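Customer ticket, subject: "Can you confirm the structure for DMSO/TMAO reductase YedYZ, molybdopterin-dependent catalytic subunit?"

Message body: Hello, I'm evaluating your service for our small team and ran a test protein. I'd like someone to confirm that this is what the system normally returns, since I don't have a reference to compare against.
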Amino acid sequence: MRGNRTAVRASDIAPELARIGRRRFLKGGLSLGALTLLTGCDLSSHSGVDAALSTMLEFDDMVQAALFNPNRMAETYPVSAITKPFRFNAYYPEWQVRIVPAQWHLDVSGLVSDKAPWTLENLLALPQESQITRHICIEGWSQIGQWSGVPLHVFLRRIGADPRARYVAFRCFDGYSTSLDMASALHPQTILAIDFEDAPLTPEWGAPVRLRIPTKLGFKSAKNLQAIEVTNTYPGGFWEDQGYNWFSGS
Ligand SMILES: Nc1nc2c(c(=O)[nH]1)N[C@H]1C(S)=C(S)[C@@H](COP(=O)(O)O)O[C@H]1N2
Ligand SMILES: [Mo]
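Agent reply: Thanks for trying us out. I re-ran your input and got the following:
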């Protein structure tokens, strides 16, 4: 991140602006680029938001740097930047968080040569990587966290996934789902996270394994994974099926 833009967060934006952005984003199926351009236009015609304009423009830059370009790396941060306390989000309240099923394993299906399910132990035996990145929720807030786990490209190669397949779909044991294009799935910062701040993920943060993809909006970072499928059939997802922009990152 450049200079004074480091401090800009989605949460700095007036709720009013965030609402405009979200509405357009949801209803229009816009890319993030188009969304921010349009919210920029909206800003100038919307009364009472002039003071927030420069913040919003900087937010555009932050989002550009973090999300727009799938070939670029998302910004990484020092340990001191980690957000405390970390914010929980799901389509249900925190008290409804489901515990990890006994006999948990990660199912693998579709265009892969090895469909054997994975235990946590098997995943921990693969190369691990740690990253401190910003998680940006479409609701208009962001936070910096530290996740460690197996780079998804390592896992996909290990199971013999067809890299020419279009999609990688994720299903979670809380009923959630999402999907990625193959290029984003293979991005070096896309990981199957197992640890959160150097301790095993707890159920609310996605135990035992969650997707963590800093080049996309937060809803793509599926928690509590149950199954991964490599496919050419558009998989959609929980929020995608309700109108969230599918790509949500560039
Ligand atoms: N399984 C599952 N994963 C999920 C969700 C969910 O409801 N269920 N919500 C998504 C959304 S919208 C966000 S912002 C992040 C929140 O992650 P956090 O609780 O670690 O902050 O999880 C994402 N992954
Ligand atoms: Mo989110």
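A couple of notes from the result: The chain is about 25% helix and 20% strand. Helices lie at 15-28, 32-45, 53-68, 120-124, 152-158, 182-185. Feel free to reply with more questions.
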